[in-house]
Specification:
The chain is of the alpha+beta class. The chain has one domain: Gcn5-related N-acetyltransferase (GNAT) (Aminopeptidase), CATH 3.40.630.30. The protein is 28% helix and 31% strand. The protein has five helices and eight strands. A five-stranded antiparallel β-sheet has the order 1-2-3-4-5, sandwiched between helices. A hairpin with a 2-residue loop joins strand 3 and strand 4. It starts with a strand and ends in a 16-residue tail after the last strand. The structure holds coenzyme A. Coenzyme A binds next to helix 2, strand 5, helix 4 and helix 5. The site of coenzyme A has 19 residues, from helix 2, strand 5, helix 4 and helix 5.
Length: 183
């Protein structure tokens, strides 16, 4: 059953778990992004094999992954990788024309509620230093900026990103692992 989130203009959009059959729409979502947005949100490669692996991980709940769907198109993709670990890794991205409509905070809330309900210790994320819109959103949602880390982008590039952490339990600590796409 989809959960619904609402744009600031009142449009209701269904958030559904990523599942078998979503591969072509997920690839089309990535292909639709402007180069600027893809430079900020390329969590993994989008070849058939990688996409099939991400869907299998989502169906096994190794990752808690959602898509936002409008008609048959995916317009948002958001997830907690390594959902079974004490500190999952969050990612979130919207198609260009769906940004700036207040969907991001609601997508974050879905993921934070899932992590809390599952008893996780906290949530980590990384973001490129020039992504001020995302950095602002994450701070509003309660994430602390811990410093800079080396990360592996979806195209294999090494990038320096800001590491952020949201504790969900008193005294919770970041994972201490290098952030990278699940294998
Ligand atoms: C970052 C993101 C998740 C925020 O979600 P959102 O629904 O757009 O956020 P909001 O509508 O609540 O807007 C939050 C702020 O970001 C600004 N913003 C949103 N999209 C923007 C854009 N494309 N360019 C510049 N600013 C933008 C808004 O103006 C707002 O600023 P304000 O509070 O000063 O008015 C979303 O814009 C997105 O997916 N961006 C591209 C991919 C990305 O950067 N993902 C995060 C990778 S770490």
């Amino acid at each position: 059953m989809p959960q619904f989130i609402t744009t600031k203009h009142g449009e209701r959009i269904g958030a559904e778990r990523l599942k078998t059959g979503d591969g072509p729409a997920l690839q089309a979502f990535n292909a639709s992004l402007s180069d600027d947005v893809r430079a900020r949100f390329l969590p993994h490669a989008y070849d058939d094999e990688t996409v099939a692996r991400m869907i299998a991980r989502a169906e096994a709940d190794d990752d808690r992954a959602y898509v936002l769907r409008v008609n048959d198109a995916i317009v948002g993709y958001f997830f907690l990788w390594n959902f079974m670990q004490p500190v999952p890794l969050l990612g979130i991205g919207l198609a260009d024309e769906f940004q700036g409509k207040s969907l991001g905070p609601q997508m974050m809330k879905v993921l934070i509620d899932d992590a809390k309900d599952a008893g996780r210790d906290g949530i980590e994320l990384t973001t490129v230093p020039e992504n001020e819109a995302a950095f602002k959103l994450y701070r509003i949602m309660g994430f602390e900026h811990l410093g800079e880390v080396e990360n592996i982008a979806g195209d294999g590039r090494k990038v320096i990103e800001r590491l952020m952490f949201l504790p969900l339990k008193p005294g919770a600590e970041p994972s201490g692992h290098s952030p990278k796409p699940p294998e």
